[in-house]
Amino acid sequence: MRLIAALVLALAVCLPAVEVDQVLAAARAASNTYQIRFRVLSNGLEAADEATRIQAMRSLGELRDPNVVPLLMPFCTAPHSAAEMIMAATILGRLGYQTPVPLIRGMASHEDAEVRKAALSALKQIDALAAGDWMQRAKEDEESLRLYALAGLGHLKHAEAVEVLVLGLTHENHLVRQAACIGLGLLGDRANGERVKISLTDANPMVRRYAAEALARLNYTPAIPDLMMALEANVAGPYILRAFVALTGDSFGFDPTAPLLMRQEAIERAFSWWSLHPELKQ
């Protein structure tokens, strides 16, 4: 509001004298109106029913006012309901201030999975997620949180993340295996290629796809023969071919839609080329 008043005053000095009083009066009126609205919405946080409190939080959040932050921070702890905590975390995340981070981080251990999700999302918006936050959530029982965290671990240069992601490669849930492949690719450590390439034989086609894409991202050329064998199986063929071309620079005429004999001939050409490039085996 101070910024608005300052802008109005700056504008006022450029106006004819007869209009200055009108501009200043309008600025005072706008300020008073805003303060009244802010006070009314703040009072709504003390309403007897939860729905009114949540609506007040939502409306306060729309103001984008830093003065909202201390008003919502108490809603990040018990005895407030899960719905109130979720709304508070959502708005505080959008506002982006660091002050409530310790309270939001505490919410990440709440018994309600939806509260934990809201807390993790808020911390990400505030850019306050630490490696420990991702690690804790990667061991979640709640599937969507675990998947979110596994993918997030790939954005961290964190040694412990590798251990968690490698374990994810053999998880019973194919979505977890996909997330693990993506995460290891994002980590960018070429040494993880040997572990990722095993997933090229996964029973799920999309796991094979993300394993191939991770290998291409890692530029793990020793996996080229594994990709050729994956092409021979022709499961998730177009995706694996794209990764294969990224590593070799050539498709060797392989077409996933071609007859089996033509696909085999293309793979034979690729193996012949591979035998001439021992430097790619390292």
Structure description:
This protein is an all-alpha fold. It has a domain at 54-129: Leucine-rich Repeat Variant, CATH 1.25.10.10. The protein is 67% helix and 0% strand. It is built from 16 helices and no strands. The chain has helices at residues 2-12, 17-44, 50-62, 68-72, 82-95, 101-107, 113-125, 131-138, 143-153, 159-168, 174-187, 193-196, 205-218, 224-233, 237-248, 260-275. Helix 3 runs parallel beside helix 5, helix 10 (159-168) runs antiparallel to helix 11 and helix 13 runs parallel beside helix 15. The longest helix has 28 residues, at 17-44. The N and C termini lie far apart (62 Å).
Instruction: Indicate the percent of residues in helices.
Output: 55-70%
Largest sheet: none
Low-confidence stretches: 14-18
Number of strands: 0
Spatial gap, N to C terminus: 62 Å
- Give the overall average pLDDT: 82
Shape: elongated
C-alpha Rg (nearest Å):
28 Å
Discrete helix count: 16
CATH superfamily of the domain at 54-129: Leucine-rich Repeat Variant
CATH class of the domain at 54-129: Mainly Alpha
What is CATH's topology name of the domain at 54-129? Leucine-rich Repeat Variant
CATH architecture of the domain at 54-129: Alpha Horseshoe
Beta percentage is: under 5%
Order of helices and strands: HHHHHHHHHHHHHHHH
Class of secondary structure makeup: mainly alpha
